[in-house]
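RECORD TYPE: inverse folding
INPUT: structure tokens
STRUCTURE:
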């Protein structure tokens, strides 16, 4: 396992649509392990494969005090409600901003064993799922800002994905 450097803006990989995983082989399992280690080493609550330079549809999420989640080819199948969150991203270092996210989401995808799973989430997990799936579509939270002057310098306690 290794900690991989996080890609930050203006790296073009962050604006690309990631490719679907066709076969879950040992390289995908190794990718997930590296992503988990990198996420924990950087203090992030989630990480998408493009953030470590791999343009594949794989995400990991590590909510404090909960078991890590790894999802392959995840998709949001349902969004409910709307709320304001303040969000930061490891790939946009030094800033955070207030954007709108769903109150709850339903996401489907494959677990690392290839089994289809569905997750119904709210609060931090819902935000993390939307944030990471956005990454797979080349979308950053700053794309949801009403304007760039809504960005603020990050505070140390701010959550980043
Ligand atoms: Zn991010």
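DESIGNED SEQUENCE:
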């Amino acid at each position: 396992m290794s900690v991989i450097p996080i890609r930050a803006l203006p790296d073009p990989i962050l604006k690309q649509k990631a490719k679907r995983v066709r076969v879950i082989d040992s390289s995908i399992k190794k990718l997930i392990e590296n992503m988990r280690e990198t996420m924990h080493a950087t203090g992030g609550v989630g990480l998408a494969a493009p953030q470590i330079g791999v343009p594949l549809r794989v995400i990991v999420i590590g909510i404090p005090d909960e078991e890590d989640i790894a999802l392959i080819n995840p998709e949001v199948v349902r969004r409910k409600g709307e709320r304001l969150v303040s969000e930061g991203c490891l790939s946009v270092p030094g800033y955070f901003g207030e954007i709108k996210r769903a109150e709850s989401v339903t996401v489907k995808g494959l677990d690392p064993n290839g089994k289809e799973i569905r997750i119904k989430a709210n609060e931090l997990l819902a935000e993390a799922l939307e944030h990471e799936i956005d990454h797979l579509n080349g979308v950053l939270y700053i794309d949801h800002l009403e304007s760039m002057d809504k960005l603020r310098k990050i505070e140390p306690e701010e959550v980043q994905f």
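NOTES: The CA atoms of residues 10 and 142 lie 13 Å apart.
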